[in-house]
Design a protein that fits this description.
binds adenosine-5'-triphosphate; single chain; 10 strands; binds magnesium ion; alpha+beta; 2 domains
Length: 254
Amino acid sequence: MLKEVIATRYLTPLREGGSLPGLVEADDFGTYVMKFTGAGQGRKTLVAEVVCGELARRLGLRVPRLVTIALDPVLGLGEPDHQVQELLRSSGGTNLGMDFLSGALGFDPLAFAVSSEEAGRIVWFDALINNVDRSWRNPNLLMHHGDLWLIDHGATMIWHHNWPGAEASANRPYDASDHALAGFAPDVAAAAAQLAPLVTGELLTEVTAEIPDAWLTGEPGFDTPDDLRRAYARPLLARAAVVHERVTGLEEGK
Ligand SMILES: Nc1ncnc2c1ncn2[C@@H]1O[C@H](COP(=O)(O)OP(=O)(O)OP(=O)(O)O)[C@@H](O)[C@H]1O
Ligand SMILES: [Mg+2]
């Protein structure tokens, strides 16, 4: 289970626009990037962060540690910014947090080099989860202490917005031409050979068990949170075996 902390102080919005994640302090004295259930994109974004973040971590990719953050909406009362106040007021209960990587820099493909092995693993993983948010315009990769870290997996698994078509999506191609790491000769075949065998039903059960029940209840067509957990696991399991053949937009021989 993800560690549970309680928000004690809202520090600052991380960035205007987007989902308005905030920097908060918690009762364990940690500083977290907090993503709110009351944000426009809703709780499915948070489910995607947990499923993809915890899967990535188990595949050996670097992802800041995820926690759940309990929020008392009272915390919003003292906020001068109206938008922030609204966000805190509408996000009572369980929210998502991740370790704040202090001093991290946004990844710049022109300033940092990435090996073709590492680029391959990340492109393969993004193809698996249908990540449309790792382009060179908006890489959602951070450099921290010389290493590459993956963040922002909210816009993935597009199929969770249309469950009846979810399993059919296992065969959909993934266009990597805009991917932030497309220029680093990603070795997707090597990544597939290394990572696909790790994506087992067992592993996905472990990963989806990390999703808080609170974000799974009441989904139309599903009786229990565990039914919905299995629905997340199925397309990922099917896709893992074939996805390397579905990656398009990378230069041949690179
Ligand atoms: N764990 C972290 N440590 C340090 N900085 C972070 C962390 N997570 C996010 N950030 C910073 O905050 C920015 C916004 O975070 P993120 O991309 O996750 O949110 P978002 O609302 O999905 O953003 P957008 O949709 O605007 O890209 C990141 O680009 C990064 O600069
Ligand atoms: Mg982002």
